């Protein structure tokens, strides 16, 4: 069976998606602050590798060494924004809808390690 990475068209498509994704995240006022002081060039490279690995079915090294834990902590809302921009970036890179869904399913289990601030009742 072909991996999600193969269905998507390989690492060059992932690199394209990641570039588009950071353009969006950095122009979003609710997210940009998290990336102050971050070397975006390096982050893009690392994320392309991480993402390609996840889409190949490899376990993600999130929550272990190398995973960023930016201040002031990530809530579910910011996570949701990021996933929305990821979906937009995938569509703009002409990734088919079925592969887009598979990609979001592959990323979804990582939420537990990414969201650092527990939800509170409002
Ligand atoms: C599926 C969702 C996400 C995954 C899998 C993920 C994973 C990671 C990983 C593995 C790194 C380290 C990369 C490296 O070694 O260079 C990282 C860095 C970072 N992430 Fe995420 N992340 C996610 C969502 C988010 C969200 C929602 C935010 C903020 C709202 C965020 C902000 C950051 C920042 C600012 C860094 C860089 C920290 C630094 O400067 O070292 N991430 N992320």
TrEMBL record:
Pfam families: Bac_globin. Heme binds at residue 46. Gene3D superfamilies: Globins. Keywords: Heme, Iron, Metal-binding, Transport. The keyword Thylakoid does not apply. GO terms for molecular function: heme binding; metal ion binding; oxygen binding. InterPro entries: Globin-like_sf, Globin/Proto, Hemoglobin_trunc. This is Hemoglobin.
